[in-house]
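Input:
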Amino acid sequence: MKTTPISSSLPIATLLMLIPLTSALAHTGTGVATGLQSGFLHPITGFDHLVAMVAVGLWGAQLGNPAIWMLPITFPLVMALGGLLGVSGVALPLTEPVVALSGIALGLLIALQVRLPLIVAMLVVGVFAVFHGYAHGRELPEAADPLAYAVGFVVATGLLHLCGIVIGLLITWPIGARAVRACGAAIGCVGGYFLLASLGVIQ
Amino acid sequence: MRGTYRLVAAVVLLAPSAAQAHLIDSRLGDFYGGVLHPLTAFEEILPWLALAALAAFQGAARARWLVLVFPLSLLAGCALSQLLNPSFIPGITLALVAITGLAVAAAVRLPLPGLLGLAAVMGLVHGLQNGRAMTATTDQLLFIAGVTSIGYGVITIAMGGAIVFLRGAGGWRPIALRASGSWVAAVGIMVLGLQFLTPGNN
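Output:
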Protein backbone atom coordinates (compact mmCIF):
# COMPACT_ATOMS: atom_id res chain seq x y z
CA MET A 1 0.00 0.00 0.00
CA LYS A 2 1.33 3.34 -0.97
CA THR A 3 1.39 5.83 1.88
CA THR A 4 0.84 9.49 1.24
CA PRO A 5 3.84 11.54 2.30
CA ILE A 6 3.19 13.80 5.23
CA SER A 7 4.31 16.85 3.28
CA SER A 8 1.47 16.55 0.78
CA SER A 9 -1.30 15.71 3.28
CA LEU A 10 -0.45 18.65 5.54
CA PRO A 11 -1.91 21.38 3.34
CA ILE A 12 -5.22 19.49 3.19
CA ALA A 13 -5.16 19.03 6.96
CA THR A 14 -4.46 22.75 7.31
CA LEU A 15 -7.39 23.65 5.11
CA LEU A 16 -9.77 21.37 6.95
CA MET A 17 -8.65 22.66 10.29
CA LEU A 18 -9.19 26.27 9.31
CA ILE A 19 -12.83 25.66 8.52
CA PRO A 20 -14.65 26.81 11.65
CA LEU A 21 -16.73 24.14 13.30
CA THR A 22 -18.14 26.39 15.97
CA SER A 23 -20.54 29.21 15.40
CA ALA A 24 -19.40 32.74 16.13
CA LEU A 25 -21.22 33.97 19.19
CA ALA A 26 -22.80 37.33 18.98
CA HIS A 27 -22.24 40.50 20.92
CA THR A 28 -24.33 41.01 24.04
CA GLY A 29 -26.45 43.52 22.15
CA THR A 30 -27.92 40.86 19.88
CA GLY A 31 -31.30 40.74 21.59
CA VAL A 32 -31.68 44.48 21.23
CA ALA A 33 -30.23 44.60 17.72
CA THR A 34 -32.36 41.73 16.43
CA GLY A 35 -35.48 43.11 18.07
CA LEU A 36 -34.83 46.57 16.64
CA GLN A 37 -34.14 45.19 13.18
CA SER A 38 -37.15 42.90 13.02
CA GLY A 39 -39.39 45.66 14.37
CA PHE A 40 -38.04 48.21 11.92
CA LEU A 41 -38.43 45.86 8.96
CA HIS A 42 -41.93 44.66 9.90
CA PRO A 43 -43.86 47.65 8.50
CA ILE A 44 -41.42 48.10 5.60
CA THR A 45 -41.33 44.55 4.28
CA GLY A 46 -45.12 44.25 4.38
CA PHE A 47 -45.97 46.20 1.24
CA ASP A 48 -49.62 46.60 2.27
CA HIS A 49 -48.50 48.27 5.51
CA LEU A 50 -45.94 50.38 3.70
CA VAL A 51 -48.32 51.94 1.19
CA ALA A 52 -51.00 52.59 3.83
CA MET A 53 -48.48 54.42 6.06
CA VAL A 54 -47.25 56.57 3.18
CA ALA A 55 -50.91 57.23 2.35
CA VAL A 56 -51.55 58.63 5.84
CA GLY A 57 -48.77 61.19 5.32
CA LEU A 58 -49.92 61.98 1.77
CA TRP A 59 -53.53 62.50 2.84
CA GLY A 60 -52.45 64.67 5.76
CA ALA A 61 -50.41 66.85 3.40
CA GLN A 62 -53.34 67.08 1.01
CA LEU A 63 -55.73 68.11 3.78
CA GLY A 64 -53.25 70.77 4.94
CA ASN A 65 -53.15 72.31 8.40
CA PRO A 66 -54.00 71.00 10.98
CA ALA A 67 -54.48 67.49 9.56
CA ILE A 68 -50.88 67.34 8.28
CA TRP A 69 -49.70 67.08 11.87
CA MET A 70 -52.76 65.75 13.71
CA LEU A 71 -52.76 62.52 11.72
CA PRO A 72 -49.08 61.58 12.28
CA ILE A 73 -49.29 62.42 16.02
CA THR A 74 -52.51 60.53 16.69
CA PHE A 75 -51.64 57.55 14.49
CA PRO A 76 -48.84 56.12 16.71
CA LEU A 77 -50.97 56.56 19.83
CA VAL A 78 -54.02 54.80 18.38
CA MET A 79 -51.71 52.21 16.83
CA ALA A 80 -50.36 51.54 20.33
CA LEU A 81 -53.91 50.71 21.47
CA GLY A 82 -54.19 48.24 18.58
CA GLY A 83 -50.79 46.92 19.60
CA LEU A 84 -52.13 46.34 23.13
CA LEU A 85 -54.96 44.23 21.67
CA GLY A 86 -52.37 42.21 19.75
CA VAL A 87 -50.18 41.79 22.84
CA SER A 88 -53.10 40.68 24.99
CA GLY A 89 -53.96 37.94 22.50
CA VAL A 90 -57.47 39.20 21.72
CA ALA A 91 -58.57 37.75 18.39
CA LEU A 92 -59.29 40.65 16.06
CA PRO A 93 -61.01 39.24 12.98
CA LEU A 94 -60.14 40.14 9.40
CA THR A 95 -56.88 41.92 10.22
CA GLU A 96 -55.23 41.37 6.85
CA PRO A 97 -58.30 42.32 4.74
CA VAL A 98 -58.81 45.49 6.81
CA VAL A 99 -55.13 46.45 6.43
CA ALA A 100 -55.51 45.97 2.67
CA LEU A 101 -58.80 47.88 2.78
CA SER A 102 -57.00 50.79 4.48
CA GLY A 103 -54.76 51.05 1.42
CA ILE A 104 -57.80 51.09 -0.90
CA ALA A 105 -59.73 53.62 1.21
CA LEU A 106 -56.83 56.02 1.81
CA GLY A 107 -55.70 55.68 -1.82
CA LEU A 108 -59.17 56.57 -3.06
CA LEU A 109 -59.49 59.50 -0.64
CA ILE A 110 -56.18 60.88 -1.98
CA ALA A 111 -56.94 60.16 -5.64
CA LEU A 112 -60.34 61.85 -5.41
CA GLN A 113 -59.01 64.63 -3.13
CA VAL A 114 -61.79 64.04 -0.62
CA ARG A 115 -61.76 66.72 2.04
CA LEU A 116 -63.32 65.30 5.19
CA PRO A 117 -63.70 67.28 8.42
CA LEU A 118 -60.69 66.79 10.67
CA ILE A 119 -62.51 64.70 13.26
CA VAL A 120 -63.87 62.32 10.61
CA ALA A 121 -60.42 62.06 8.98
CA MET A 122 -58.92 61.20 12.36
CA LEU A 123 -61.60 58.57 12.95
CA VAL A 124 -60.97 56.95 9.56
CA VAL A 125 -57.22 56.86 10.11
CA GLY A 126 -57.70 55.81 13.75
CA VAL A 127 -59.79 52.75 12.87
CA PHE A 128 -57.14 51.59 10.41
CA ALA A 129 -54.37 52.38 12.92
CA VAL A 130 -55.92 49.89 15.38
CA PHE A 131 -55.64 47.10 12.80
CA HIS A 132 -52.10 48.05 11.77
CA GLY A 133 -51.03 48.19 15.42
CA TYR A 134 -52.71 44.84 16.06
CA ALA A 135 -50.79 43.20 13.22
CA HIS A 136 -47.47 44.47 14.62
CA GLY A 137 -48.42 43.92 18.25
CA ARG A 138 -49.16 40.24 17.72
CA GLU A 139 -45.44 39.70 17.05
CA LEU A 140 -44.34 41.73 20.07
CA PRO A 141 -44.35 39.02 22.76
CA GLU A 142 -42.25 36.71 20.56
CA ALA A 143 -39.69 39.40 19.67
CA ALA A 144 -36.05 38.94 20.70
CA ASP A 145 -36.36 42.16 22.69
CA PRO A 146 -39.95 43.44 22.82
CA LEU A 147 -38.97 47.02 23.71
CA ALA A 148 -36.46 47.25 20.84
CA TYR A 149 -39.03 45.65 18.50
CA ALA A 150 -41.61 48.28 19.51
CA VAL A 151 -39.07 51.08 19.00
CA GLY A 152 -38.21 49.65 15.57
CA PHE A 153 -41.73 49.40 14.23
CA VAL A 154 -42.92 52.71 15.67
CA VAL A 155 -39.92 54.55 14.20
CA ALA A 156 -40.37 52.82 10.82
CA THR A 157 -44.07 53.73 10.80
CA GLY A 158 -43.30 57.34 11.71
CA LEU A 159 -40.65 57.61 9.02
CA LEU A 160 -43.09 56.23 6.44
CA HIS A 161 -45.59 58.94 7.45
CA LEU A 162 -42.79 61.46 7.02
CA CYS A 163 -42.09 60.08 3.52
CA GLY A 164 -45.76 60.57 2.70
CA ILE A 165 -45.74 64.14 4.06
CA VAL A 166 -42.57 65.02 2.11
CA ILE A 167 -44.02 63.59 -1.13
CA GLY A 168 -47.28 65.37 -0.28
CA LEU A 169 -45.49 68.74 -0.18
CA LEU A 170 -45.50 68.50 -4.00
CA ILE A 171 -49.10 69.78 -3.92
CA THR A 172 -47.81 73.37 -3.92
CA TRP A 173 -47.33 72.93 -7.71
CA PRO A 174 -50.28 72.01 -9.93
CA ILE A 175 -48.40 69.16 -11.59
CA GLY A 176 -47.25 67.97 -8.18
CA ALA A 177 -50.84 67.89 -6.94
CA ARG A 178 -51.68 65.59 -9.87
CA ALA A 179 -48.68 63.41 -9.06
CA VAL A 180 -49.92 63.08 -5.46
CA ARG A 181 -53.37 62.04 -6.71
CA ALA A 182 -51.71 59.51 -9.01
CA CYS A 183 -49.79 58.17 -6.00
CA GLY A 184 -53.16 57.77 -4.24
CA ALA A 185 -54.53 55.81 -7.18
CA ALA A 186 -51.46 53.56 -7.20
CA ILE A 187 -51.82 52.97 -3.44
CA GLY A 188 -55.47 52.05 -3.96
CA CYS A 189 -54.46 49.50 -6.61
CA VAL A 190 -51.84 47.95 -4.30
CA GLY A 191 -54.48 47.78 -1.55
CA GLY A 192 -56.86 46.09 -4.01
CA TYR A 193 -54.27 43.47 -4.87
CA PHE A 194 -53.63 42.68 -1.22
CA LEU A 195 -57.37 42.54 -0.47
CA LEU A 196 -57.87 39.95 -3.21
CA ALA A 197 -54.79 38.08 -2.02
CA SER A 198 -55.96 38.04 1.60
CA LEU A 199 -59.37 36.74 0.57
CA GLY A 200 -57.72 33.97 -1.44
CA VAL A 201 -58.89 35.18 -4.84
CA ILE A 202 -55.29 35.65 -6.01
CA GLN A 203 -52.84 32.97 -5.04
CA MET B 1 10.57 17.64 9.72
CA ARG B 2 11.36 20.98 11.31
CA GLY B 3 9.21 22.67 8.67
CA THR B 4 6.38 20.27 9.42
CA TYR B 5 6.41 21.17 13.12
CA ARG B 6 6.33 24.84 12.23
CA LEU B 7 3.37 24.26 9.98
CA VAL B 8 1.54 22.28 12.65
CA ALA B 9 2.24 25.03 15.17
CA ALA B 10 0.94 27.66 12.75
CA VAL B 11 -2.21 25.64 12.09
CA VAL B 12 -2.89 25.27 15.80
CA LEU B 13 -2.37 28.98 16.36
CA LEU B 14 -4.57 29.93 13.44
CA ALA B 15 -7.36 27.51 14.28
CA PRO B 16 -10.57 29.50 14.50
CA SER B 17 -12.47 29.60 17.72
CA ALA B 18 -15.79 31.13 18.60
CA ALA B 19 -15.83 34.89 19.04
CA GLN B 20 -17.09 35.69 22.48
CA ALA B 21 -19.27 38.58 23.41
CA HIS B 22 -17.90 41.90 24.51
CA LEU B 23 -18.91 42.84 27.99
CA ILE B 24 -18.71 46.56 28.42
CA ASP B 25 -17.96 46.26 32.11
CA SER B 26 -14.99 43.99 31.71
CA ARG B 27 -13.33 45.85 28.87
CA LEU B 28 -13.58 49.53 29.56
CA GLY B 29 -13.41 49.94 33.31
CA ASP B 30 -16.09 50.77 35.79
CA PHE B 31 -16.45 54.47 34.96
CA TYR B 32 -17.23 53.67 31.33
CA GLY B 33 -19.35 50.75 32.47
CA GLY B 34 -21.47 53.30 34.31
CA VAL B 35 -21.48 55.65 31.31
CA LEU B 36 -22.59 52.98 28.86
CA HIS B 37 -25.08 51.16 31.04
CA PRO B 38 -28.01 53.62 30.67
CA LEU B 39 -27.23 54.13 26.98
CA THR B 40 -27.71 50.46 26.19
CA ALA B 41 -31.27 50.41 27.56
CA PHE B 42 -34.10 51.88 25.49
CA GLU B 43 -36.31 52.06 28.59
CA GLU B 44 -33.92 54.66 29.99
CA ILE B 45 -32.63 56.62 27.03
CA LEU B 46 -36.11 57.12 25.51
CA PRO B 47 -37.64 58.84 28.58
CA TRP B 48 -34.41 60.87 29.03
CA LEU B 49 -34.85 62.31 25.55
CA ALA B 50 -38.59 62.79 26.14
CA LEU B 51 -37.89 64.57 29.44
CA ALA B 52 -35.43 66.86 27.65
CA ALA B 53 -38.06 67.66 24.99
CA LEU B 54 -40.71 68.23 27.66
CA ALA B 55 -38.38 70.60 29.52
CA ALA B 56 -37.65 72.45 26.27
CA PHE B 57 -41.41 73.09 25.87
CA GLN B 58 -41.37 74.80 29.29
CA GLY B 59 -38.78 77.36 28.14
CA ALA B 60 -35.08 77.71 28.90
CA ALA B 61 -35.55 79.44 32.27
CA ARG B 62 -37.41 76.45 33.75
CA ALA B 63 -35.58 73.76 31.79
CA ARG B 64 -32.20 74.87 33.15
CA TRP B 65 -33.04 73.45 36.60
CA LEU B 66 -32.91 69.95 35.20
CA VAL B 67 -29.18 70.26 34.55
CA LEU B 68 -28.77 70.07 38.31
CA VAL B 69 -31.78 68.07 39.50
CA PHE B 70 -31.64 65.14 37.10
CA PRO B 71 -27.99 64.04 37.57
CA LEU B 72 -28.25 64.51 41.34
CA SER B 73 -31.35 62.30 41.46
CA LEU B 74 -29.51 59.68 39.41
CA LEU B 75 -26.63 59.89 41.86
CA ALA B 76 -28.99 59.49 44.82
CA GLY B 77 -30.76 56.54 43.15
CA CYS B 78 -27.47 54.77 42.40
CA ALA B 79 -26.24 55.34 45.93
CA LEU B 80 -29.48 53.95 47.38
CA SER B 81 -29.47 50.92 45.10
CA GLN B 82 -27.37 48.93 47.53
CA LEU B 83 -29.91 49.49 50.31
CA LEU B 84 -33.24 49.40 48.50
CA ASN B 85 -34.49 46.79 46.09
CA PRO B 86 -38.14 47.54 45.37
CA SER B 87 -39.90 45.11 43.03
CA PHE B 88 -41.97 47.76 41.27
CA ILE B 89 -39.00 49.43 39.56
CA PRO B 90 -39.42 47.76 36.10
CA GLY B 91 -43.12 48.69 36.02
CA ILE B 92 -42.42 52.32 36.95
CA THR B 93 -39.59 52.50 34.40
CA LEU B 94 -41.94 51.47 31.58
CA ALA B 95 -44.71 53.75 32.90
CA LEU B 96 -42.25 56.67 32.77
CA VAL B 97 -41.66 55.98 29.05
CA ALA B 98 -45.41 56.23 28.37
CA ILE B 99 -45.97 59.23 30.68
CA THR B 100 -43.12 61.40 29.35
CA GLY B 101 -43.98 60.46 25.76
CA LEU B 102 -47.64 61.42 26.22
CA ALA B 103 -46.65 64.69 27.94
CA VAL B 104 -44.41 65.61 24.98
CA ALA B 105 -47.09 64.58 22.44
CA ALA B 106 -49.56 66.89 24.20
CA ALA B 107 -46.86 69.59 24.76
CA VAL B 108 -48.08 69.88 28.35
CA ARG B 109 -47.23 73.05 30.26
CA LEU B 110 -46.04 71.96 33.69
CA PRO B 111 -45.46 74.09 36.78
CA LEU B 112 -41.79 74.09 37.78
CA PRO B 113 -42.29 71.75 40.78
CA GLY B 114 -44.10 69.29 38.49
CA LEU B 115 -41.25 69.23 36.00
CA LEU B 116 -38.61 68.90 38.70
CA GLY B 117 -40.66 66.22 40.48
CA LEU B 118 -40.87 64.17 37.29
CA ALA B 119 -37.12 64.56 36.72
CA ALA B 120 -36.37 63.61 40.33
CA VAL B 121 -38.57 60.49 40.22
CA MET B 122 -37.05 59.41 36.91
CA GLY B 123 -33.52 60.03 38.18
CA LEU B 124 -34.14 58.05 41.36
CA VAL B 125 -35.80 55.10 39.59
CA HIS B 126 -33.16 54.91 36.87
CA GLY B 127 -30.43 55.34 39.44
CA LEU B 128 -31.81 52.39 41.41
CA GLN B 129 -32.00 50.34 38.22
CA ASN B 130 -28.48 51.17 37.05
CA GLY B 131 -27.05 50.68 40.50
CA ARG B 132 -28.24 47.07 40.47
CA ALA B 133 -25.81 46.34 37.66
CA MET B 134 -22.92 46.81 40.08
CA THR B 135 -21.37 43.54 41.17
CA ALA B 136 -19.13 42.79 44.14
CA THR B 137 -16.03 43.58 42.09
CA THR B 138 -17.34 46.85 40.64
CA ASP B 139 -15.71 50.03 41.84
CA GLN B 140 -18.92 51.65 43.02
CA LEU B 141 -17.61 55.20 43.09
CA LEU B 142 -16.42 55.04 39.48
CA PHE B 143 -19.60 53.33 38.26
CA ILE B 144 -21.90 55.85 39.96
CA ALA B 145 -19.75 58.73 38.69
CA GLY B 146 -20.14 57.31 35.18
CA VAL B 147 -23.94 57.02 35.43
CA THR B 148 -24.24 60.54 36.86
CA SER B 149 -21.95 62.02 34.19
CA ILE B 150 -23.84 60.48 31.29
CA GLY B 151 -27.14 61.59 32.83
CA TYR B 152 -25.81 65.14 33.04
CA GLY B 153 -24.37 65.01 29.53
CA VAL B 154 -27.43 63.54 27.80
CA ILE B 155 -30.01 65.72 29.53
CA THR B 156 -27.99 68.92 28.99
CA ILE B 157 -27.18 68.29 25.32
CA ALA B 158 -30.65 66.96 24.43
CA MET B 159 -32.41 69.81 26.24
CA GLY B 160 -30.14 72.45 24.72
CA GLY B 161 -30.61 70.92 21.28
CA ALA B 162 -34.39 70.84 21.69
CA ILE B 163 -34.52 74.49 22.90
CA VAL B 164 -32.41 75.66 19.94
CA PHE B 165 -34.54 73.53 17.60
CA LEU B 166 -37.75 75.12 18.91
CA ARG B 167 -36.32 78.65 18.51
CA GLY B 168 -35.86 78.16 14.77
CA ALA B 169 -38.31 79.50 12.21
CA GLY B 170 -41.32 77.47 11.13
CA GLY B 171 -44.44 76.28 12.87
CA TRP B 172 -43.57 72.66 12.09
CA ARG B 173 -40.80 72.49 14.71
CA PRO B 174 -42.93 72.04 17.87
CA ILE B 175 -45.10 69.66 15.84
CA ALA B 176 -42.12 67.52 14.87
CA LEU B 177 -41.08 67.38 18.52
CA ARG B 178 -44.63 66.42 19.56
CA ALA B 179 -44.76 63.72 16.88
CA SER B 180 -41.53 62.21 18.23
CA GLY B 181 -43.11 62.31 21.69
CA SER B 182 -46.05 60.31 20.36
CA TRP B 183 -43.58 57.68 19.10
CA VAL B 184 -42.07 57.36 22.57
CA ALA B 185 -45.55 57.18 24.11
CA ALA B 186 -46.63 54.47 21.66
CA VAL B 187 -43.60 52.35 22.54
CA GLY B 188 -44.19 52.91 26.26
CA ILE B 189 -47.90 52.01 26.11
CA MET B 190 -47.28 48.76 24.23
CA VAL B 191 -44.39 47.55 26.34
CA LEU B 192 -46.18 48.51 29.56
CA GLY B 193 -49.15 46.51 28.26
CA LEU B 194 -46.88 43.56 27.54
CA GLN B 195 -45.53 43.76 31.09
CA PHE B 196 -48.98 43.55 32.65
CA LEU B 197 -50.98 41.53 30.14
CA THR B 198 -48.59 38.66 29.54
CA PRO B 199 -48.74 35.98 32.20
CA GLY B 200 -45.41 35.23 33.80
CA ASN B 201 -44.09 38.75 33.45
CA ASN B 202 -45.50 39.99 36.72
